[in-house]
Amino acid sequence: MTSDMTEHALGGDPLRSGFENPGDYGFETRAIRAGQPHDPRTGAVITPINLSTTFAQDAVGEPKYGYEYARTGNPTRHAYQECLASLEGATHGFAFASGLAAEDALLRLVQPGERILLGDDAYGGTFRLISRVHGEIGVDHEAVDLTDSDAIRAAWTPETRMIWLETPTNPLLTVFDIELMADVAHKLGGIVVVDNTFATPYLQQPLSLGADAVVHSATKYLGGHSDVVGGFIATSDDRIAEHLGFVQNAVGAVPGPFDCYLVLRGLKTLAVRMDRHCTNAAAVVSCLLDHPRVSTVLYPGLDGHPGHEVAARQMSNYGGMVSFRLVGGREAAEKLATSTEIFTLAESLGAVESLIEHPGVMTHASAAGSALEVPDDLIRISVGIESIDDLVNDLERALATT
Fold this sequence. Notes:
Layout: H1 27-33, E1 57-59, E2 62-63, H2 75-87, E3 92-96, H3 99-107, E4 115-119, H4 124-134, E5 140-144, H5 149-155, E6 160-166, H6 178-188, E7 191-195, H7 200-203, E8 213-217, E9 231-235, H8 238-251, H9 257-268, H10 270-289, E10 294-298, H11 308-314, E11 321-326, H12 329-337, E12 344-345, E13 355-357, E14 378-382, H13 388-399
Parallel strand pairs: 4-5, 4-6, 6-7, 7-8, 12-13
Antiparallel strand pairs: 1-2, 3-9, 8-9, 10-11, 11-14, 13-14
Helix pairs in contact: 1-2, 1-9, 2-9, 3-4, 10-13
């Protein structure tokens, strides 16, 4: 179940057409078929974009197909929720208008006077939401080294309710042991939320490792084409699902049907795109490793990465994100970021085109002066699916100018 509707708006089981047991099928097949029956009226193989804001009822309080008002439920959103929940191995899925809207819904599980432990390397927008929005209503937080289970136990208080972790992290690509975090949190009476944006469900399955909920910025790899903003939460915990269903409807930060269609379309090619992202990223890393202008390369696929062993155990590959530090500090980093041609200087990540940014000034500026401040010589690149020789040559030309 992924919403308060039990049937597809056009009738029948949303996993019908020979697809009654989606767990029997592989990831790529589910990405294309789960939650997406052929249209019973026309035979269309693509889920329709249903723009209606209201739906006919057979009698007072008896919606004809289980839908009544588009904020509460929409057929296109329902298909998207069914599909992505299946890919995460979850029984419930909830779509939101942005990644931060999804995060906000989860953070509402923590009440004023309670506290959150988050990694000391987290996305700046997440830190801002926790510290300045939820912090202002009395939710406490502490940034902790989540690679150290003893540090978590030392930071835990009776008021702690949640461990919030990204893995790999944004932008330092730190890897956390999800299974270990879940074991520690559950023994202490808390829950674990994993931001799976960088890895995607194709490379990593947090719920199978004990996480209680998984959150995504669907804007990134899930959509995959820099043309939609969205967020998503997957869980198999009925209590969390009840909370999320209520917040999704009551707050109303839901995606429009066209946005749902775009992410659903992106999911169909997620596996093949991620394979290419990983291949290209590995080639870029090889280029950077021995470059005299690069002081450090941060990538979980490297044997020398502190989290490599954990990443090899809980991920099927290492992703398309690469960060590195430059000789010459901030000046060199900013010059490099403005010197590439194929890597576009822009925020965001996870799309088919390659992007480059300076996190300290751009995506993580809100963390400046805090425990989560990032080095000013750091560059983060989102390696796209272009011709790998072009990407490597572009970086080598730009590095020669720093």
